[in-house]
Amino acid sequence: MAAIAPPAVGSVWINTPAHRWEDLHGIPTVLAFWSIGCDASVVLLRKLQKLQHQFGASIQVIAVHSPRFEAGGEVEQVAETVASLKLSIPVLHDPQLETFHRYAPGGWPATVFVHANQRVAGVVLGAESDIHADVVSHLQVEPSHQPPKFRVGYKPPRPATELAWPSGVALLNGTGLVAISDRGHDRIVLAIADPISHTVTVTSILEGISAPGRLEATGDGSFVVTQPDAGTVLLVNPDSRSVSPLCTGMVRPTAVCVDLDGSVVVADAGADKLFRIPAEAVASGTECTPLHIAGSGFTGQSDGPAGRASLSQPNGMCRTTKGVLFTDSASHNIRILTNDGRVFSITNNSPTHHGLVDGPAPSALLTRPADIAGRPDGSLVIVDQLNNRLRSLHGGRIATIGARGLLRPEAACALIDGSVIVADTGNHRLVLVDADQSSACVMRLDGMERVLSMGAAPTVRGNAGLPLRLGYPSPGKGPWEVSVASDPPDLLVAPLRVVRTEAGGEVVVNLGKPGEGILTVTSVSTGAQRSIKLPLQVR
Question: Who contacts 199 (Cβ-Cβ below 8 Å, separation ≥6)?
C-alpha cells in the first residue's frame, strides 16, 4: 500500500492566502520541490504552470520552495523571485526543509504525486519527464475547465518608467550604446551609458520581447539575446527594429557568447549542455538547429573531452584566447571549453562545498556564479549571484570587489574605460563598478518617459502558412481575454480571440498571405486593458 502523504508545512504562503493541508482532502495534489538558484527548477515550474491550466480543478499544484542554499531562505527573496517569474501556481515557503525532509524526494527539483486519498502515488526527480503523462499515470485524472481550488494573486507591476528585474546588459559599440534586458516588462532597452555622470540615457525601446535574458553584440550593430522561458535565441537588429529567431526548442538557454568566427555559443542551463549556432545562420538571420559542442547531458562536474564532460547548469560566458569561459552555476565553478575541445575546471567548488573565499582560483569559493565578463586589461569579473557580490579573476587569483548592496545580480558587461555595468536584478537597477578602485554607484536612468511617449516596436517576421508564437501583455489581474488582429487582415489566416489565465504567456496565430502591415495584440482583464502594435512582415 502507498505511504500516507505527510502534511505539507512551511513558514508562509507567498502568492496566495494561507491554506491548510486538510483543504486538499479529496483533491489529487502535485507537490513540486524547487529552489532559488536552480535553472532546472524554473523549467519544472513552467511545465507545472501549463499543467495546472490544463487540468484545472482536477488537481492542485503546489510549488514548495525548499532552498538548496542558505542565501535562498529569506521570505522577501522568494516573494521577489515568484513575482519575477510571474508564477500562477501557489508557492509554499519551506525554509527549514521540513516538508522536503518529510517527503525525501531525493534532490532538486522533484515532483511528488499525491492521490485524493492522501497517499503518495509517485515521485519524479528532475525536470526532463513528460509531466502531463506523469499526472495521468500516477493520479488517473482528466482535464477540467473549472478553476483550481487555490487562487493566486500577483504583485502590482513596476512602473514602465523603471526597470523590472533586469537580466542582461551588453555593450553594443564604442560610443557606449548598451542593450538592457528588462525582463519584467518584456522589452529590451537601448541606452547610452556614461561612466562619468553615472547615467544611462534611454534612446529607444524594443517592446514585446517576452522575458529576455542575456545578450551579446555580434559586431555588425546587431545583438543576440536569449529567451530562457521560451527556449529561444533571437537575433535583433536595433536599426531596422527587426527580430529573427536563430534557434527554438531549447530547454532553457540562459546565455550567449559570440565566438571568434562569428558563430554564437549558447549555454542551455536546462539541458546541461553548450551549443553552437553557425556563423552563416547568424549572418543571414535564419533559424537553424544548433550544434551540440559540450556536455554529456548528465548533471555533474567531470572534466575531459567536451562531449563526455558533465556540466551543471552552464550560464554566463566570455571568450578568451584559450577558449570559452563559462560559469557552471549549480556546481559553483568557473570552467572553460578549450580551443582543442576539452572542458577544464578553473575552480574546485562543488554543490556541497562553496562560499565566499578569495585566493588562488583552485581554492577560492563562489556561490552560484551567474555571469563572467572580460575587461580591456584582460582581467575578468564574475557575478557571484548568491553571495550578492562581484569578484575579479586575474593572474590565477579570485578577489572580491567592494561593491556591496547587490541583490541577486545576474549579468555584467565591461565598458571601454574598464568600468563594469552590473544588472542588479533583485534591486531593479544598474550599478556601475570601478573594479580597480573597488567602488560602486547606482546608475541613474534618464529619458525613459520621453521614449515611452514616442513609442517603438520591433518588426515581427514569419513565413506564410506557418504558425507564429506571440507573447501578450498582462494588465491588472487575470484571466485575460487576448485578441490578435492584423492590418491588412489577410496577413493572418483569421483573427484570434482566446482567454488565458497565465500572466506573460503565449498565444499562437497562423500567418496568411505574404506582405507587410501592423499586428495588434490586446489583453483585457477586469478594469484594465493594454495593446501592443508591432510591425509585421510575412514572407
Answer: 193, 443, 444, 445, 446
CB 351 within 8 Å of CB 310: no
Q: Answer yes or no: is 324 within a domain.
A: yes
Residues 114 and 243 in one domain: no
Q: Are residues 406 and 515 in the same domain?
A: no
168, 214 in Cβ contact below 8 A?
Answer: yes
What whole-number distance in Å separates Cα of residue 333 and Cα of residue 49? 31
DSSP secondary structure of 129-172: S-HHHHHHHHH-----SSPPSS----PPPPPTTS--SEEEEEE-
This prediction's pTM: 0.81
Other CB atoms within 10 A of residue 310 CB: 18
Tens of pLDDT, residue by residue over 112-144, are 999 998 899 999 999 999 999 999 999 999 999
Extract the C-alpha cell encoding 280: 552563416
Contact predicate 202/445, CB 8 Å? yes
Q: Are residues 325 and 468 in the same domain?
A: no
Cβ–Cβ under 8 Å, residues 287 and 281: yes
Boundaries of domain holding 445:
166-450
SS3 content of the chain, % helix, strand, coil (to 5): 15, 40, 45
201-228 b/e (C-beta count within 10 Å ≥ 16 → b): bbbebbbbbbbbbbbbbbeeebbbbbbb
226: which strand partners? 233
Q: What is the pLDDT of residue 2?
A: 56
Tell me which amino acid residue 190 is. Answer: L
Residues of the chain short of pLDDT 50, as ranges, are 1, 456
The beta-strand segments (E) located in 397-466 are 397-401, 411-414, 420-424, 429-434, 439-442, 444-446, 459-462
Question: Same structural domain for residues 338 and 437?
Answer: yes
- One domain for residues 120 and 232: no
d(CA 250, CA 265): 13
DSSP symbol at 311: B
**What digits encode the pLDDT tens for the residues 448-479?**
887 787 554 557 788 898 888 887 777 667 78
Same domain, 74 and 94: yes
Return all residues near 521 (Cβ < 8 A) that are at least 6 apart: 208, 470, 471, 472, 473, 482, 483, 484, 507, 531, 532, 534
Q: CA dist 468 to 241, 426, 501, 514, 536, Å?
A: 18, 32, 20, 14, 11
Measure Cα distances from 5 to 67, 94, 123, 127, 481 in Å: 21, 16, 12, 22, 38
**Predicted local confidence at residue 498, as pLDDT:** 85
Under 8 Å between Cβ of 163 and 150: no
Q: Is 17 exposed, middle or buried (0-12, 13-18, 19+ CB in 10 A)?
A: exposed
Kindly report the backbone phi and psi dihedral angles of residue 447, in degrees, each rounded to the nearest multiple of 5, phi listed first: 85, 0
